[in-house]
Amino acid sequence: MSKRSKLFLKGMRRKTKIAYLLVVGVLVALTIRVVYINVANGKEYSEAVVLQMDYNSTDIPYERGEILDRNGNVLANSEKTYSLILEPVNILITEKGKAATRAAVLEYFDVSGDDFDKHIANEDSYYEVVLKDLPYTKVKAFEDYCKTDEGADVIGVRFETVYKRNYPNGSLACHLLGYTASGNVGQGGIEGYYNDYLNGVDGKTYRYMSGSGGVDSETVAAQNGETVVSTIDMNIQKIIEDNITEYMQNTGAKQIGIIAMDPNNGEILGMASSRTYDPNDPMNTQALRNMTVTVTQEVEIEGADENADSLISVESAKKNTTATTESSEDGTTTESSTEATTEQKNVKTEEVEYDFSKMSDEEFQSTIDGFTSDQLYEALNYVWQNYCISDVFEPGSTYKAFTIAGAMEDGVISDGDEFLCDGSQVVVEGESPIYCSYRAGHGMVDVKRALAVSCNDALMQIADKEGPETFDKYQMIFNIGSKTGIDLEGETTGIKYDVENLNPTELATSSFGQGVTTSMIQMAAGFCSVINGGNYYVPHVVKRLLDSDGNVVENMDPVLVRKTISKEVSDYMKTYLQAVVEEGTGYAAGIEGYTIGGKTGTAEKLPRGNGKYVLSFIGFTPVENPQIMLYVVVDEPHVEDQSGSGAGAKLFNQVMQDLLPYLNVYSTNGDDVAYDGTEEPLSSAFDTDTETADTEAATEDAAAEDTSAEDTSAEDTSTDDTSADDTSYDDTADDSYTADDTWEDDSGTGDGTDTWSGDEDYSGE
């Protein structure tokens, strides 16, 4: 080998060695770098890889929390169901797999051949939903088949877990519970108010390629929603609803509402109304079948109307053809001119009432089918709406408890103070008097008897002694005109006269519950403070929240808002309210062996003189230590004489007789509670023939001054108790406006600045 060749080989060896060392150096550096990155940032990059693989992930649905009653009974839960999913891409890989899958799906599920073929038509799809809400039994049977030799070729079929909201008791407590819409969105009731607590967070399973070429997975577990333990007692709720159903079947009414509360802490034990629906199927229009609902619709009006809600301009084209003598290729031209004119049409929005109970099945369905989607929701909303918190009415004589309690607390009156009832009061000189329920007059009555016989005259004198400032102060203390803060959606406020608008007439009528409007929950919460020692608690329907393991997350302790009256005044009020039942207008509410207190109300609805009333009774037992407060409202009972029906007190009696044994409230008084007064009814509150009214009333003059139960006829003279309880919109037997009066909201805000307008001629009894 020549010297040149040897030098060349030596140089090549040197270069190769250098190159080798460089490569080794780079590899060592890279290795060091990889190790460093893995140690320092390995977790971060691993998570990034997983996140980048979410295209191959599967959601794990959370389970919405349960709603339980106070004793642990399930009111609402979520049932696990399954959706059948087909993967056409995989199914169509082989004809053998397609045939096996098709045969299995058709055999085990309610799927036709055409449906199957339709769902696998998209050859690029990995996700075709075929069936929903499948029970586990069907899924398991199919999966067991696929594990056999016969089903080994089935491919491209999987199941997704879906939770479906379930209300195992049907319509029971529907307004307290509410329902859920698509996507686990609570609507109304506890479902709506506590939606964020009941909902959880979906989990995910991520699948990605492993380093060895296989498929690994990582799962983030779902976080289930919290369980809501309510204050509701399912048995009390059922007793209330059963009695409402029985009354509606046997007598009937436009509406009934009942609230049962623990007066010592504001817990709602039961709440129901006569309009019900099944939260499992809230869109079912059969819930409207026996209802009377009002919907809004547009009506076209002929001619111009400035009061129309909208003015529609319609262009009408009129085509006029005229011949011209202009030259053209054929010597003449016929030219068409189009003249546009504009026609205006007025469209007015009107509220139309539909009484579905009087329609045949065909008429009902035809009417429903003719509704727009907005009208259908408007009609269904009437059923979904919780009457006990969302509707307002004039409370009537039940309001008198607040008037007397406030006056006593402020030292305006004392126990034993007497008032002369001569049958009426002239509150504004020169204007018509406001009559008492008993036109001949009750004579001298003390505070206790004034409440027992529901004497409007005495109440007006008490309010006059209070004055607007003190009277309105206690309206606010008892939370009239404001929301109670109950943990349910849809609460309304009602309206009241504020101090600036409590003129002599308004002050007088407000004293016995006329001119103010309240919701049932406002009256119930305020009344509880009257009988529990003066403690106003926020009414509430939830006791505590639990996690998915049953651990307490949060206790919803009772919230004491304020002191309304002293215990001393509260004790007086309890004895006064007991006298209402045992000596006065509330006799029909009494139960043998029990001490019961309460107050009746008979509110006449607008327009005055139409014979339509809201009957109510708010009461409690035992008087010595109240354990339950029950408020019953019956709107327009289907009887000939609504004002004299005593519907509120009678239904209170029926419900309470069923509740007391369940509550283990034992009898404390062995005396029978029996009405011992006259059966002769007083004349109508709107009877202008005062001579006739006075003649009828004269037959009871002796009873008006007697201390026996006989003089309870001053408010109610029939065994039905309420004919003389309350007058006008509030109480037909107390004092009332004539039918010419109208309610007018001067402010448009409903903030208490509303006034009466019209002929303020009182013709109450």
From TrEMBL:
GO molecular function terms attached to this record: penicillin binding
The UniProt entry, under InterPro entries, shows:
Beta-lactam/transpept, Beta-lactam/transpept-like, PBP_dimer, PBP_dimer_sf, PCN-bd_Tpept
A GO biological process this protein is involved in? cell wall organization
| Extent of Acidic residues compositional bias | 688-748
Name one matching Pfam family: Transpeptidase
Record region (Disordered): 304-349, 674-765
Name this polypeptide is given: Penicillin-binding protein 2
Q: Which organism is it from?
A: Coprococcus eutactus
